[in-house]
Design brief:
The protein is an alpha+beta fold. It folds into two domains: 11-151, Sandwich (Jelly Rolls), CATH 2.60.120; 155-233, Arc Repressor Mutant, subunit A (Orthogonal Bundle). It has eight helices and ten strands. Strands 1-8-3-6 form a four-stranded antiparallel beta sheet. The protein has a four-stranded antiparallel beta sheet with strand order 2-7-4-5. The longest helix has 27 residues, at 128-154.
Length: 237
């Protein structure tokens, strides 16, 4: 991954911020927020948020990829979602003043901006458009969560795996070859998303490869026939 030179990034000049709730900030508001926030490099595997800790601000991904997960009673990870450029982390706990219910780990070297609590709430009060944008974001995230719960309950395992691969593509895009999903995950991580055993994911991925729908290159997964994957996932194109 080619990381940019680390600077304190102004949201109005940040490509990632243009895809985030902070896209509605005026240049003066973005400059004002810059006085309090800072951007830091988190190496692959670094824990950015710890489940059970109280927030003192929120994080926004400038460049990178992370996984959001919680630990079950058996110690096994349950991946809740992934996040990438422009996505926020920890904002629900900050708004409700509750501990983090999830942990966040960097999937690769990532630049992540931190906005202190006081500055975030100041920006909400002085920028009604930001409040509206945040409400839209929360509504979309709730809808996605509800749809995922329904799919986990109703879809067969093969369909859930196909849908997961499509979601990974929608989140991270393709590499330069136009077919390889631009994120590297262990088979265990994929199993945690789908909600099944690692062995089942390994078997189903092998079946999809045999059918010519995907290609496997180590931990890299390439989608060869997107239409067939949509059909298996029961998702209309």
């Amino acid at each position: 991954m080619n990381l940019p030179v680390l600077h304190d990034v102004v949201c109005s000049e940040c490509e990632a911020a243009r895809r985030s709730v902070f896209s509605v900030l005026t240049n003066s508001d973005a400059q004002h927020m810059k006085t309090a926030k800072h951007c830091a490099l988190h190496k692959r595997g670094d824990v950015i948020l710890h489940e059970g800790k109280y927030p003192d601000g929120l994080f926004c991904i400038h460049k990178g990829k992370v996984k959001v997960f919680r630990e079950g009673e058996d110690g096994k990870e349950q991946i809740v979602r992934f996040a990438t450029d422009g996505d926020m982390l920890g904002y629900k706990a900050l708004i409700t003043n509750k501990p983090y219910v999830n942990s966040v780990v960097a999937l690769d070297d990532s630049y992540i901006c931190f906005i202190p609590r006081s500055m975030f709430f100041e920006m909400l009060h002085r920028t009604p458009e930001l409040t509206t944008k945040l409400m839209e974001h929360l509504s979309n995230e709730l809808r996605f969560t509800e749809e995922r719960l329904v799919h986990l309950a109703q879809k067969p395992l093969r369909s859930r795996l196909a849908e997961t691969l499509l979601v990974l593509h929608d989140t991270f895009g393709f590499e330069a070859d136009g077919k390889t999903i631009n994120v590297v995950l262990s088979r265990e991580d994929i199993a945690n998303i789908v909600g099944t055993a690692t062995e089942s994911v390994i078997r189903l991925l092998a079946e999809l490869q045999k059918e010519g729908i995907i290609e496997l290159h180590g931990k890299h997964i390439a989608i060869i026939h997107t239409a067939k994957l949509h059909h298996i996932a029961h998702i209309a194109r």
